[in-house]
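Can't paste images in this forum, so I'm doing it all in text. The chain is below; anyone willing to post the predicted structure tokens underneath?
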Amino acid sequence: MVDVSVIIPTYGTPYFLNSSIQSVINQTFKNWELIIIDDNNPDTEARKQTEAIISDFQKIEKRILYIKHKYNKNGAAARNTGFAAAKGKYISLLDSDDEYTIERLQKCYNVMEQASQNIAGVYTGCEYRKGGKVYHVDKRALSGNFLINTLACNFKFSTGSNIFFRKSVVDELNGFDPKFLRHQDYEFLVRAFKKYSLAGISEVLVIKNNENINLPSVEKMIVIKEQYLNKFKDIINSLPQKHQEYIYHTQYILIAEAALRSNKKSIAKKFYKLAGILTMNEFARKMGFTLINLFKYKWIYNIVYTVGYIKKQNK
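Text version of the structure:
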């Protein structure tokens, strides 16, 4: 029997796929299978590049299963394809641009083998890189139930590559919700936290390469938040008032700050008003974003004004 099924969904140009796969092969823990789900459309260059990379690995590693979607579905659907094919006792997710440290599977496996049945899975500390350089390290990984923070999208589990779950729990939850194009991990975790808790390992065991931060527009972000909050409104409404207020306040602040960073003042004003009283940190960030926008657009204005003035003088 396979102990751990590692699942890598991949889409787009596979810049880091070599490193992701190699980080699994390098594990000190050996009883694993690797399932790679290619969510690219068949006639794309990304599909050809992905096929070539995986073909080379399969020549030397028989534990790799390669599944190709007939058409692009989405990340949640790709993970579900992997879940259906998995034979392991545990599921370990890995995004195609992230990596594991060499002892990740062994340490996560050891914790879960000793954990009680109310523990659905384990997560760990994370190292963040950009351009091959480390820019942030978060070692803290607390154990417990984080339903409230997850509903507020404020649970710091770092990346979808930090999900190591019992296969039985993944099956019980029926995997990911393919209707969610964003907040897929949070949506999955909310449903898990309704019944289970997580164990934490306060050690960096996953590496997130933040090269392609694909952030939605503020307008799309609002739609995403509405979908997320609407799905779980019954759960939210069943919570004490202070938790409900915290969840909505935090979500509104996230939208307001994103709007302010994009200099969409009317949207920012609306959601700051919905959020209510700001904490000191929130107020400081609001002032910071406002000043950045002020100087940024003043600088652009000055360039435009100067160029216009020079052209006028040369006429």
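The longest helix spans residues 280-314. The chain is about 50% helix and 20% strand.
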